[in-house]
Structure formats: structure tokens, C-alpha cells
Amino acid sequence: MESTGNSSVSGDRKASKKTVASSVTAKPSGKSPVSSTNPMNPNTVTALSSAHANQVMFFRDVSLGPREAELRFRLIHLWEARNIYTKTLIGQEMLLIDEEGTVIQGFVPAGRVGTFDLVAGSVYKLRNFFGSRNKAQFSVADHIAIVSFSWNSDLSVLENPPVLIPEDRFRFHSFEEFMANCDSKDCVGHMRLVNGQTLTDHTVLDEVAIAEKRHLCVHVQTHDGPVMKLYLWDNAASEFCQKFKSYGRTPHVLLVTTVNPKLLGGTLCLTSMSSSRVFMDDDVQPSKDYFEWLSSNTGIANRIAAEVVTKHETVTLEELFSYIKQEASKVAWFECTATIDDVVQGSSWYYVSCGGFNSKAVKGPTSLMCNNKKCEKSEVTGVPQYLTKISIYDKREQAVFVILGNAGKELTGKHAVELVANFFESNEGAGADHYVPVPQALLDTIGQTGKFIVKVSDHNLKGKTQTITVTKILPPEAPLPAMSDDIPTTMGDGSAPSSGYGDPAGDRARKAADSLESDDAKRFKSG
Known about the structure:
This protein is an alpha+beta fold. The protein has helices at residues 13-16, 42-51, 175-180, 207-213, 234-246, 285-296, 298-301, 317-325, 406-412, 416-426, 440-443, 458-461, 505-510, 519-523, and strands at residues 56-57, 65-82, 89-97, 103-109, 123-133, 145-148, 154-157, 185-194, 197-198, 215-221, 227-233, 253-264, 267-271, 278-280, 313-314, 332-343, 350-353, 361-363, 368-370, 383-393, 398-404, 449-456, 468-474.
């Protein structure tokens, strides 16, 4: 593999191109390398190859078509290639590196698998092969060609190679490069979450659950960049578990090769491939280099830098406010544990939605109307939804949160529509303009401590409001909600439409549509 402008080798070439002497011996040929004068012309290639049959060729000179020259290389890694649907064996794929540090992909067709004795880490010489065109997608090397083993290929162990051949080479991408280039590269960083668990000195993996699901999810951050969601499947997941346990302590650095980037709902997700390998703290030189950096830069490494992370980072209120003040911060979701000090009164604790898009329903000439242009209903049935401000605190800071939609039901155990209907049932003479006071169900939450999933919005980042929006609430002892790892989804902060309610309570509840005087309620649009 020749280095390209958009791939880096462990930050610099010296760090990732770790060269060691082989322990096996070989007979030097004394031949000089040969290259084709016209590498894209198969006829010229064949003629030259025939004339110099036993000369050694570097990977940089490999081109398309049949070749009879000799290659010398180390076998870095090998894996089976199977049809994704039928699981039929297609062949055996390999990652090879020569003495110049150039990496190329190798391939043994299914009919020849087992013919060659291949062992990862060994050094070989190969005579006679075919230069196949590299894949446009999911390639594991940047080279234009693949070394395909053909009918007359002759492979043998190279004993005592005259030149040291590197053990490995990596092609790292940063978050920005993964976003810009949807090709397979390597990823290195420190782990923030493993299957939803924050790493501690006593983190234990649920290997049974991982084996049943065939995958796990790791949130990885490279230096102080955005957090990326990395899915490890099958062999990669198994390798992760084995290495994680083998350390006898909690490892922190994760390096995964040939990950496939995907943008799902605007969120960057990385997925392992059949060719992926997993390394941790002390396994290879690039992971050692990163671990050394991590040990010297814990403050930078722990700085919050979420890029619409689908799994929520746990922060204190102080850290939350610090993130909002950072110039490069973007919209993100976080988890805070706090105690409710009071329910803010003096403004309406709910609003009336259209029942479809959760947008505020407005009073029309004869009925309620939805102010969301996507809503096709000319008339809507108003559905009360929570829009409740609460003052909260943790050990060091105070803040004001606003509870929206179903988050209110998670807090009180009751839907807003039920509480509003109960009020009008108990107050038969109340008209549409009657102020609905804060219900006891909300007041009873004062003094409770809970986990709040909050959204830092554009309004927070631009300084338009200091009120933080709550999209979900959990009690401290409850686990975080499971999120689908099979197909990552973009989680919206709007709640599902509330169910309708029947008469006569529903008729009385609709009177509340005209009693909304809160400016926040007038401005609010869910979703």
C-alpha cells in the first residue's frame, strides 16, 4: 500500500511502520527488482515478466495482468471471504506487506483454499500470480491491484530474508476524514462506553449477551475529537472480549483495522468487516503510542466533544455548562443526575398539541389548527402535552430544565392529558380560559433524584436561553434504555403522539387550549 494524502500512518510513518527481524532463514537471490515500463498494458507486462522470470518485484510495481516475477512479503492477516447471503465460500483474502512497507491485498480462490500453507506473521516468496483489479468498495489496501494466486503460483517460506520486512502498517482516519471519505480505514482512540457501560476499574463484559447478539457497540474518541459509534461484529466482537479480559485490568485504547464508515440519519457509525483486527493498549506500536498520549493528556482526552452522539455521555451540570460555552460545541445529548428543587409556577405547565406532529395547536376561526406546515389536517383535536419547567441541582450547580412530552409521564407516571382532564372533571364550571394550576403529581416530584437525558440545542449554544430541554427521565437505579445496535437510528427528541381521550373529560380538557399564556408555550414546536 502506498501512502496517500488522506490516510495517515499512526500520526507519522515512523510510529506505525514497526519493523522487526524475521526468525526464519532464506536464500537471497541476489537479483535486483524490476518494474514494468508500461504497467497498464498487460501484453507489455507479460513480455517483461517472461524475460525476467526470477527477478524480485516490489509491490509498488505490481500491475494488472499475469506476472511471473517473484514477490517477497510478510503475511499480516488472512480471513475467509463468504457470500453475505448464502455464506458460500468465495475465497481466502490476505493482507501482505513487502520490505518497502507497501501493503497489498492477496486472494486465494475458493477452489485453491487449503492448497497453500498460510500462517499470519510468516515471510514468504511467491512466483507466478495474477494482478487483479482492486475492489472499488471495502478495499483493505490502497493499491490498484490484488495479488491473486493462480494455477501455476509457487509459494514457499522465505528463510533468512536479506532485508527486514515490517510486521504491519496502518491507515488511520480522523473523524473528519471518515465523514468525507466513505472507504475502509483504521480507527484508533480511547473508549468512552462499551455496550452502554462507562469504563471503570471493575468493568465486566456480558459475554453471553454479546455472543447472542453477535456484536457489541463501543463509543470511541480520537484525542479530543467527536465521539464515534463503533460496531464490532462476529470475530471482531469475540476478539474484543478476549483481549479485554486478557489484560487483567480495564484497557482504554482501542485500535480496529478496516472499519466501514456509514452515515445513518446524519450520525457517523463505524462497522467492523471480516478483515478487521482488534488491538488494545500494549498490543502494537500505534496503540502504545496512543496510550502514552492518553496517559499524558487525561484532561484533553476527557473533554466533552460530542458530535450528535446517539449514546449519551454522563456529565455533571458544571461540565454541561462548560460544554455549552465551548466555541466548537454542537447539538448533543447528555445524561445528568440531579435532584428536583421546585416546579416553576406562574406559567402554564403544559401546552396543547395537534396530536400528530406534537406541534402547538393554535386557535382558528372555528376550531384548533396545527401550525406545522407538514400537517395536512385542516382541523385538529388538541392533546395536552407536558411543557413544565423545574429547577434542579447537583453537588455543585443549579439549573432550570424544561420537561417535554413523554418525559413528563416518565416523571409523574401520568400523561398530561389525564391530569388536565381530571382538573376539568373536578371543576365543572371552569371555562376554556380557566388557569390550570400545577397538579399535585408534579409537586410530589420535588425532592426526587433522577437521571435526565437532556439536549443541548442551538438556542443554548447561541445564548438565547439557559433552560435545558429534557427528552427522557430515568430513576437512578434503572438501566439506560436499550438502543438498537443492529441498525443505528437517529433518535429525535419529540415524543410519540399521545393517545386521544374520550368525552366528557376530553371536551373539558380541550378548553385548556385557550388558557396558554406562556411565551415558551407559544414558541414551542416539538420535533
